[in-house]
Design goal:
By secondary structure, this protein is mostly helical. It folds into 2 domains: 70 residues, no CATH class; 158 residues, MetI-like fold. It has 13 helices and no strands. The N and C termini lie close together (10 Å).
Amino acid sequence: MLSYIVKRVLAAIPVLFLVVLITFILVRIAPGGPFDEERSVPPQVLENLNKRYNLDLPVHEQFFSYVGNLLQGDFGPSFKYPNRSVTEIISTGAPVTIELGLYALIFAMILGCSAGVFAALRPNSWRDYSAMSTAMIGICVPSFVLGPLLVLIFGIYLGWLPVSGWGYSPGDKILPALTLGAAYAAYLARLSRGGMLEVLNQDYIRTARAKGLPEWQVVIKHGLRGGLTPVIAFLGPAAAGLLSGSFVVETIYQIPGIGRFFLQAAFNRDYTMILGTTIFFAFLIILFNLITDILLVWLNPKLRSEVFNQ
């Protein structure tokens, strides 16, 4: 298992390098520059700014200089936030974004897996159709539509929950987590339903039932481990989607996460901020996918034997 983890970590290094290279090229070829303003900057001031941030160097020298600093853990200074480094900004907003993604993932797993198992126990019944119809609605409604609807209903009409902020009042984390996790709860419901239907038709499930075990014990003890394997496989992409989807949710609910900084950096052409946030998100996505693969190997004896025999 250790050799498998080491191989996956080594394979992630060139992926991160390609992310840095492609992002660096894209931000450089995009129209405009970080110091383009509505009012023209005096040529001497613009020259001093370019020299301060090494923008006067050839592009390849800028890239290798950036990579050298990156290897030392330095994402560089922000072009739009004077006296603040990109590392400092990320360390401020990242915990909020990760916390939001964690709450949304917990909500999606609890609601989605419960609905999927609930539907699989009575296939082609009214509760199966109702659960899957609700899941389809959750997939079709995007977060930028669902968010304002939840704000309108629970925040304005009913007045039950706050509609903005993060950590300032009780309940201000509920609506953002619901908005971000709703679509993934729907995906998990469909995946868990399919996985449970396949497992509940296996011979060992019939044997467990023939022995007279209670239905809840058959489902929880014998069915969930195999039935939720597709859910485990989806957790890596789901975590990646939750992180990238937080951009919209953070904007709707005015959450001080890293997603808002990323959007502002794109509008402001803040090269180092765009690079820093992109690399940070890429690292998290690779990390979550690695954790998911390890869980799949641990849960699946066939995969585990293949890994150990490598």
